[in-house]
Amino acid sequence: MFALPHLDLPPLRGAAGTVRLPGSKSISNRVLLLAGLAQGVTEVHDLLDSDDTRVMLDALRALGCGLEQDGAVLHVRGLGGRLAVHEASLFLGNAGTAMRPLTAALALLAASQGGSFELRGVPRMHERPIGDLVDALRPLGCGVDELGQPGYPPLRVHGQAGGRLDTAQPIRVRGDVSSQFLTALLLALPLVAGQGPVVIEVEGELISRPYIEITLELLARFGIHVQRDGWRRFTIAAGSRYQTPGRIHVEGDASSASYFVALGAIAATAAPVRIEGVGSDSIQGDIHFVAAAQAMGAQVQSGPGWIEVRRGRWPLQAITLDCNHIPDAAMTLAVMALYANGTTRLSGIASWRVKETDRIAAMAAELGKLGAGVVEGDDFIEVTPPARWRAATLHTYDDHRMAMCLSLAAFNPLAGANPPQPLRIQDPACVAKTFPDYFEALFGLVQADPAEVPVITIDGPSASGKGTLAAALARRLGWHFLDSGAVYRATALAAQRAGVPLDDEAAVARVAAALDLRFEGDRIWLAGEDVGDMLRLESTGAAASRVSAWPAVRQALHALQLSFRRAPGLVADGRDMGTVVFPQATLKVFLTASAAERAARRHKQLISKGFQASIADLRADIEARDARDRSRVTAPLKPAEDALSLDNSALGIDQSVDAVHRWWRQRNPLDQG
After folding, report:
1. Which residues are CB-neighbours of 633 under 8 A, at least 6 positions away?
2. What is the rounded distance in angstroms from the CA atom of residue 444 to the CA atom of residue 438?
3. Which residues contact 139 (CB under 8 A, 6 or more apart)?
4. Sheet containing 529-530: which strands, arranged edge to edge?
């Protein structure tokens, strides 16, 4: 996950490939609560791992549920409808799917079994209304104290053991603010339906009905059958009791699928974008986003558990749509509207105002920065594509869906942006709420013009610290990292393993051309084996110095090195990155340090790994290697003419990264003005 203050996206021009979706947030937290309330052990498969599910898991653990992780399967031992603890303080972040159902369930359990529970969240959660749920609970006999602003969390629910609940009369709840209030009651009231049926009546027009269908479907899997009279009246049968289904699977998140459906509709021309984990058999209402995308021009095929999308009509067709049935996924339509042939109007989205942020106001503000024409109302938004696209820094309001939607604006070259515009996503880590690896997944599918992908090169002599600096800088920027020294070391290692003499230029070049190498964080994989430690050996380094002198080897590895230039950007370190491999790099740095300092650093590194070494021998080897690298005919070690020099003899790694990052900001157009 990109735990960065911001992430810069270059202009993007195409997309293809396969993405596997994380589990649905809506299903995950409902399943967790149901499993926690049920009798028996439930095996939960493919549970979403995100901020929202983590706070629900923490709450269930605090309430005494047994939780045991076995690989990808979570075993939940439920409470069987009986409180195991009678006092707890629960922090629920900004998870409405945890705050509202837990409030209802604990209010009912505390009122009948005794207890006191506080439920709190982040500041934004304390701005999200819960008063309509409180108003439905109090007439039942539940004790609910509002600890802050009336009608909003934080709350305390409490009661005395043996308390009686008044469930003889219909329980009334508003349905026109959030469907989560009705879901909370539907999930909680089976706990107290033992003596007679319990009726819920909805006041006002029920919004987000597909989310209620998810709730009813999952209730049935846990043994609770609800009789529904339209969308106004719901009856829970007398004697209802939660029972584990034994095993339950969480399907992929249909709301998250919307970003990749849109991606295919906008940018998949040569091959489709394939989405796995959700498909035509989905129980989620947001699967109907697919029909809206088709109305705008997407070509879609789907089956059980999968969807494939290509671009069809282009530009996309502007639409007018009541989005009451797909409130979360509708946000993606607002960004797709940037690529349409007129004004798109999305209505029935009043619930946007009480989500993680005021999404109507937020979307209007951010699309406006890009140059779009936007009109907002109480329950609608109208979007007209930009006449002239602008580079922009886009705020995400600590809202995961804002971050994911807005990333699609990077495809502005396909809408005729001239010049193509980069954009900045503030606080990209907010996607952890539902899709922690969203940006990694996105970058695995997209294509960019290499000339528009920024590159920073870090060249320098052996043991100057260029690899450490480049890796740290790449992490700070959220970019890809190319350790060219590791490429040559891997070539030498692969040649030795294949029995190829290192002085046979043609044979080593053939090994280089077939090199199966990938970087994964701090690990380096050669033919599926983690060889990071072997590549750091002095013997491997010496062998790499020999093979790197061969022109045929360097030519064979050139294409591999160029392939690392992918969105959102690349930091490449080596000895000829700025002079030969990436001569048009946006920023070139030549890193230096004294031979004595480099020998001391290498000695410390080797000793820490249990290898014996002499500083004097290391210094002599470094000086000899410097002379050899400077004098070789092919790609001699030297700074590029436009490189900035940095002597880090007296600098720590953080100081070195700060210096190069400062130089980058001076050249980055998104940091100007």
Report:
1. none
2. 10
3. 166, 169, 171
4. 517-520, 523-526, 529-530
Average pLDDT value for residue range 347-353? 95
How does DSSP classify residue 338?
A: G
Question: Position of tokens 């149901």?
Answer: 34
Say whether both 61 and 16 belong to one domain: no
Q: What is the DSSP letter of 496?
A: H
**Rounded CA separation 637/630 (Å):** 5
Mean pLDDT of the chain: 94
The residue type at 245: P
- Residue 155: CB atoms within 10 A of its CB come to 25
- 525 - beta bridge partners? 518, 530
Burial label for 84, CB within 10 Å (0-12, 13-18, 19+), is: exposed
114: left (phi over 0), alpha (psi -120 to 50) or beta: left
Name the 3-class secondary structure at 114.
strand
**Residue where one domain finishes, among candidates 390, 419, 447:** 447
What token pair was written down for 623? 């000086």
Apex CA 339: angle with CA 334 and CA 342, to 5°?
A: 85
Residues 79 and 109 sit within 8 Å (Cβ to Cβ): no
Beta strands at 114-120 and 155-161: parallel, antiparallel or unpaired? antiparallel
Predicted pLDDT at 2: 63
**Residue given tokens 């900001």 in the structure block:** 665
d(CA 558, CA 562): 6
Cα-Cα-Cα-Cα torsion 399, 402, 407, 410, nearest 10 degrees, comes to: -140
Residue-level pLDDT at 118: 98
Distance CA 157, CA 100 (A): 12
Confidence class of residue 211 from pLDDT cuts 50, 70 and 90? Answer: very high
Tokens matching residue 349: 């989205």
Catalytic residues: 328
Please state the pTM of the whole predicted model: 0.87
Q: Which amino acid, 451?
A: A
CA distance 375 to 357: 18
Domain end point (choices 427, 447, 467): 447
pLDDT at 549 > cutoff 90: no
CA 274, 279, 285, 289: dihedral to nearest 10 degrees? 30
Q: 556: domain range?
A: 451-671
CATH number of the domain that residue 528 is part of:
3.40.50.300
pLDDT score of 538: 76
pLDDT at 545 exceeding the cut of 60 = yes
Q: How far apart are CA 362 and CA 448, in angstroms?
A: 28
CATH number for the domain including 272? 3.65.10.10
User: Residue 259 above 80 pLDDT?
Assistant: yes
Residue 290 burial (CB < 10 Å; 0-12/13-18/19+)?
buried
